[in-house]
Specification:
288 residues; alpha/beta; Rossmann fold; 2 domains; 43% helix; 17% strand
Length: 288
Amino acid sequence: MNPITLALRAALEATALLAPPLVGRAAYGLFGRPFVRAKVGGDHERTVMARARVSTLDVDGRGVRVYAWGAGSPVLLVHGFRSRASHFAALVPALEERGHTVVAFDAPGHGDSPGRGTTLPEYVRIIRGLWAEYGDFAAVVAHSFGVICTFNALRDGVRAGKVVAVSGVSEFTFVRDEFVRQLGVSRRVGEALSRRVEELFPGIDPVWRRFSAGYRPERVTVPLLVIHDEQDGMVGHDQAVLLTEAYRSQAELITTQGLGHRRILGAPGTTEAVLHFLAVPRLLSTDA
């Protein structure tokens, strides 16, 4: 465990002992922070990013770095937590060649966007802002945390023809539990964080259910391709199964072997599967 994580864990545990009412707020303040920014990985990523048309999207007064390539029907790429737009570099040229405008962004606190961190609702507002600018997406290709954010955006009214979920998070409780696990904090800190999230997002249904990708599946009727590695050490394959089951009549699951959580994005088989899925007309099944 790195020194930053150790210091944060100690601070939260001390707050839980000395000022219990404040620990939930303190934990939530750290909930969306990546702490370390992912770097552009290698010459190919640098080359692809150097060709991008770069702009800034204002979201709640924060400038979000946006990248675009090519011309044609728009395809949105949504990166995950502790990631960045450049990690989709293997997919960008292939989508350009198929006649798409490829759009991606660095979330606040990620890549080249300013800020310390972001939240799921902020991701939704970014996706909505890009939808307002580019129009209905031919497809959205999302990775990891970006998957759960994409489904929330679609339920919020964003329109897309198809969705590809790579190494995706399906349950919002997974996001909370992974935060608690990575910091190594006690159960009381995790429970305080849960209470704080529930206070901030009240509703008839629990926020942990409402923010999950499988909530109200009847509101997201687009064809869905789920790609997930069986040995994914960050987001377990069970998340892919849950997502596929939630959208069973419109979903297809491809399970890979040995590609892990991030390397899967650059794998030739992933690019081929995405291109095939986007190119082939698909009719939704009427099966229950």
